[in-house]
Amino acid sequence: MWADTLLGVANAVSAPMKLDRLELVASGGKAGAGEPNIAITGILPERGANLRLVAGFIERLSQDQSFSRRFAQVRFTGVGGAQGKGGAEPSRVDASDTEMRHETLFHVVGLSGGRK
Question: Whole-angstrom Cα distance, residue 37 to residue 20?
């Protein structure tokens, strides 16, 4: 069933966007009871940080039956910037890799308690 849920996330991402992180986080309910929420961090295209892309992502994710069975609501939780060396892992950066990249990250959370 998780494979279907993750496939729903992948299908909701539009071509110019990228996924950065998927994380299960404790729900805010009583003593962490119940199913965890899913926190999604994605990357908007450089020079095109358009929040309409995020709105479309949320819309597609909310309409996906496999995702909404597990997560009843999808909420936008913000945007932020990230800086790093262009594409190389920190331990593998060399002198020729000096170009900095600036990315706009978006954050969305899927709240547990799926639709019946």
Answer: 17
The whole-angstrom separation of Cα 23 and Cα 28 is 15
Q: How far apart are CA 43 and CA 89, in angstroms?
A: 17
Rounded average pLDDT over 82-105: 53
| Residue 91 counted as domain residue | no
CA distances to 2, 84, 87 from 98, rounded to whole Å, are 39, 10, 11
Kindly state whether residue 92 falls inside one of the protein's structural domains. Answer: no
Looking at the 3D structure of the chain, how many domains does it have? 1
Q: Cα(4)–Cα(66) distance, rounded to whole angstroms?
A: 6
Confidence tier at 89 by pLDDT (50, 70, 90): very low
Chain Cα centroid distance, residue 17: 10
**pLDDT tens-digit series, residues 28-77:** 765 556 789 999 999 998 766 688 999 999 999 999 999 999 999 999 99
Q: Which structural domain range is residue 81 located in?
A: 2-28+35-85+101-112
- pTM for the full model? 0.76
